[in-house]
Amino acid sequence: MSTFNYKAFYDRVGKQNGWDFSKVQCTVEGEMPNLYHLAAQHSPKKKLLLDIGTGGGEQVLEHCRAFQLVVGIDSSYEMIHAANTNLKASEHSNFRFFQMDCTDLKFPDHMFDMVSCRQAPFDPNEVSRVLAPSGLFITQQVSEHDKYNLKQAFNRGQSYGEANGAQQKVFVHQLQEAGFINIEVHEYDVTEYYHSAEDLIFLLKHTPIIPSFGIEEQDFDIFEKFIADNQHSKGIKTNSKRYIITAYKRGQ
């Protein structure tokens, strides 16, 4: 796991697909809020939003149009290329996308009213620096027990073997150290049924859930057994486990 090159992975995915999973057919049972819906609800003034790890920009372009300006950044050149292509097709004028490292944000202090981050790394100190006093940081992250039956079947996977909730505690502590207050955590665990093997293969080839899926010789034998063991009338069963953290920067 530690040797997996996530940046190279996201460059490849960005070039092939951006971050658009709209064609994947999946039935979801349970509540999983959309991070960007929540961002819009938390910001009645809807001024300046920074989105860290924006991928191909599909989510912010769809859900954050009411903001005065949305700036999306991603470390992957290919993801940003996809985002700018999607922006051009959308014809919206209040979005900008840049390749940038989340640990070195090229923005002035206190520039943004809100910072969002969906399933991507972030630097709490840099978030605090660019966020205006009393501004909101909101992030959705993947729990260690996401797609847990898949990881068990392959005996490997993203955060596999780590205690559930471990990274969440680290993030909360880091945000506290960076001076954030009113920190809240909400956890969600929903059941997913992928309609076909092709839908699930697409997910695994375009996310790092099972790093290097399809490269190892036994992967498709394991995959076929997983389908046989988890096939239900609604589809192939797994889970999506996420948590959302909201935190406010201290006011002046």
Summarize the structure.
The protein has nine helices and nine strands. It has helices spanning 6-17, 35-42, 58-63, 77-90, 124-130, 148-154, 166-177, 197-206, 219-230; strands at residues 26-29, 48-52, 69-74, 95-99, 112-118, 131-142, 180-194, 231-232, 235-249.
Shape: globular
Query: How much of the polypeptide forms β-strand, as a percent range?
Result: 25-35%
Report the CATH topology name of one domain.
Rossmann fold
From the alpha carbons, calculate the radius of gyration and give it in angstroms.
Answer: 18 Å
Mean pLDDT: 90
Structural class: alpha/beta
Q: Which CATH class of one domain is shown?
A: Alpha Beta
H/E element sequence? HEHEHEHEEHEHHEHHEE
CATH architectural label of one domain: 3-Layer(aba) Sandwich
- Helical region count? 9
CATH homology group of one domain: Vaccinia Virus protein VP39
Which range best describes the helical content: under 10%, 10-25%, 25-40%, 40-55%, 55-70% or over 70%? 25-40%
Number of strands: 9
- The low-pLDDT segments are 9-15
- In whole angstroms, the N-to-C terminal distance is 42 Å
Biggest sheet features: 9 strands, mixed
Task: Tell me what the structure shows.
It is a single chain. By secondary structure, this protein is α/β, with parallel strands linked by helices. It has a domain at 6-22 and 31-146 and 160-189 and 242-249: Vaccinia Virus protein VP39 (Rossmann fold), CATH 3.40.50. 35% of the residues lie in helices and 28% in strands. It contains nine helices and nine strands. Strands 1, 2, 3, 4, 5, 6, 7, 8 and 9 form a nine-stranded mixed sheet that branches. Strand 2 (48-52), helix 3 (58-63) and strand 3 (69-74) form a beta-alpha-beta unit. The longest helix is centred in the N-terminal third of the chain and has 14 residues, at 77-90. The relative contact order is 0.18. Residues 9-15 have low confidence and may be disordered.
